[in-house]
Specification:
- The protein has 2 domains: 115 residues, 3-Layer(aba) Sandwich (Rossmann fold), CATH 3.40.50; 134 residues, 3-Layer(aba) Sandwich (Rossmann fold), CATH 3.40.50.720.
- 39% of the residues lie in helices and 15% in strands.
- The chain has 12 helices and 12 strands.
- Helix 1 links the parallel strand 1 and strand 2.
- Helix 1 packs across helix 12, helix 6 crosses helix 7 and helix 6 packs antiparallel against helix 12.
- The radius of gyration is 21 Å and the shape is elongated.
Length: 284
């Protein structure tokens, strides 16, 4: 980054607190807002929204930037941060980055003038986030499932970045691992990794643990009717997820929601990934 930037970090969870401190540790001035209920940052300085906007050349919004399309995602703020025209006007003439900004930019026409960029769309960030997501999913399984992962009969649905990492971790722990994917090339990759490859129509057995990574319903009656009350499904996909909830309840199958795991299980590492993405975008 050839010029010296000043950063304003707004809202979010533990990731944003670690992000602010990490950027400040690199020698950049950093202000924060909407993190008041978290432990104070060591090096970043809390500020009002107006002061933050005045001091900052780069604004970093959370992941997701807005959950409801009305407010900034700021669960640790002492007061709600409305994503209205008044808020957006503060960010004029700033470089603005946010994660999953689709709902945010629908809140005001002024966003068209600002042109915020979505760091969550960076391929490098998506690849990196798959690691804590897979590790966190294993942690959820260890906590919820009454048996051991070692020796458990496991199914991974979907074989993208998260699915691949999950399958490798499960195998390393001694699980019996199958995976289901639509693409034939993915199923060939499974075979090369020593994972039992399946199409979705070929899911015909009972499993101890099912990890879903597909944000479309792939775990419906044909799969669930073959499970029982000792089957746990770990739902990793974003809403609406991939599990037929009514059918799962009817079959007595346990479904555990585990969204946004990087921010929950590894906020410090996840913050470093976001920082790297932001720095790369500034350089470009």
């Amino acid at each position: 980054m050839p010029m010296i930037h000043t950063f304003g970090v707004i809202g979010g969870d533990e990731r944003m607190r670690y992000l602010a401190d990490s950027i400040a540790a690199d020698g950049y001035p950093v202000c924060t807002a909407g993190l008041e209920k978290l432990a104070p940052c060591r090096k970043a300085v809390p500020a009002s929204m107006e002061e933050l906007a005045k001091r900052s050349s780069v604004i970093v919004l959370p992941l997701p930037a807005s959950r409801d399309g009305k407010t900034i995602n700021a669960p640790y703020s002492e007061q709600e941060i409305a994503a209205d025209d008044a808020f957006v006007r503060l960010l004029r003439n700033k470089i603005v980055y946010g994660g999953m900004i689709g709902k945010l930019v629908s809140t005001s026409d002024i966003w068209q003038e600002i042109g915020p960029e979505d760091y969550y769309r960076r391929e490098a960030l998506a690849v990196a986030n798959a690691i804590p997501t897979a590790e966190g999913a294993i942690g959820v399984a260890v906590r919820e499932y009454p048996g051991t992962v070692n020796g458990a009969k496991c199914l991974v649905t979907g074989f993208g970045r998260i699915g691949k990492n999950l399958a490798m971790l499960l195998k390393s722990m001694g699980a019996d691992v199958s995976a289901a994917a639509r693409k034939q090339e993915d199923r060939m990759t499974m075979r090369a990794m020593g994972v039992r490859p399946l199409s979705f129509r070929e899911i015909t057995q009972r499993y101890d643990l099912i990890f879903n990574t597909v944000p479309a319903q792939v775990i419906g009656p044909p799969v669930l009717n073959r499970q029982d009350t000792e089957t746990w499904v770990i739902e990793l996909a974003s809403a609406p997820g991939g599990v037929d909830r009514m059918c799962a309840e009817r079959c007595g199958v346990h479904v555990v929601d585990a969204p946004s795991l990087p921010g929950l299980v590894a906020p410090k590492t996840a913050a470093e990934y976001i920082k790297e993405a932001i720095y790369a975008m500034l350089e470009e």
